[in-house]
Amino acid sequence: MATINNPFNPSFGGRPQYFFGRKQELSIVSDALGNHNSPYRTLFFTGNRGCGKTALLERLSGLAGNAKWLTIDVHSANASQSIVRKLIGANSITTERTAESSLGFAGASFKAGSLRTSETVSYDALDLSDTLLETCSSLKRHEGIFITVDEIQKIPEADMENLCAAVQMSMRKGMPIALMLAGLPESKELVSSYRGCTFMRRVTDIRLDSLLVTETYEAFQHLMGLVSNVDVSEGAIDEMARYSQGYPYLMQLIGYYTLEEAPLPALPQVHKVGKNDVRFAKAYAYEQFRTNVLEPVVNELSSGQRAYLRSMAIALDDDGQARTGDVAQIMGKNQRQLSVVRDRLIKKRVIVPGDRGCVRYNLPRMHQYFTDPVAFPAFDAADTWKHV
Length: 388
Description:
Blueprint: H1 23-33, E1 42-46, H2 53-66, E2 70-74, H3 79-88, E3 92-105, E4 108-122, H4 128-137, E5 145-149, H5 157-172, E6 177-183, H6 187-192, E7 204-207, H7 213-224, E8 230-232, H8 234-244, H9 248-261, E9 271-273, H10 275-299, H11 303-315, E10 322-323, H12 324-331, H13 335-347, E11 351-353, E12 358-361, H14 366-370, H15 381-386
Parallel strand pairs: 1-6, 1-7, 2-5, 5-6, 8-9
Antiparallel strand pairs: 3-4, 10-12, 11-12
């Protein structure tokens, strides 16, 4: 019988029931809210799918709200227009004016009624700068305006330039405004390349990957402790932490399926969750992680980049590293010929440098993905590279 109060929520891109980790990031923003001169009132949060960008934005928005900031959360679609709409509460404001008219006869005047006129002012995305300034200037119940924008790489260039211009002008005027942006690894570089967004080059990029080891263990211990009909062994916690490697979405998956697939009894009986329960859940967790994270990342890569990653899987040692010389040998090339491919993968944060002359995967379960005989039944890295 599965638990009815599973604290893990692996809905992809959604808001988790319980937030965990990211203590350093929360501290940075919390300090910035109280410090008008902080350079961290505008931040980029970048990382691969499933690293918890959306969940972090939600947490930061709640943090700002508790600090009495006016919070505005928008997605990439029509970001500027969405902010304007939320600031004024509508797309347009209609103002009515009433004027009394009178008729005079031989020194006497009589009221003949009143005349009403109305004036409608419509707002669009181009009014964002003025709207921000007006709202900041008239704040009474709030400390400032806190804006979060998700999927920043999807915002059209003109819309992004409008948003940047409005925020930059507000900051120039000394207004209390904070802007938190989240997107894929190369989104900051993309946005900074826009003609009207060059000041974004100076904005700090906080790169989100796996949680710290201590945060990972603390999260599993806390969430498992919320379930009343289980007693989780230290071995099970360790198994979940090692399997997920602290990657937020995979943590949600392995925790969720460990509880859902375990033979949990009704209260007052308690099931002892052990390593075997976690191992049984791995197949379900991997299937969804592969579909929602690994495949989309890999599908966006070139053939040469995929060949490099597959060759890494063959060359990987027990420490999870691959020597770049071994990768080149597998592909039938020298290291110089592969330097551009390697650097591009590092820039996309699919791999990261390891020890001298080595690289390692930056996403968990990628070795499993590239050694899957179903996905790669007859892969020849050297032959693939010839056609790139």
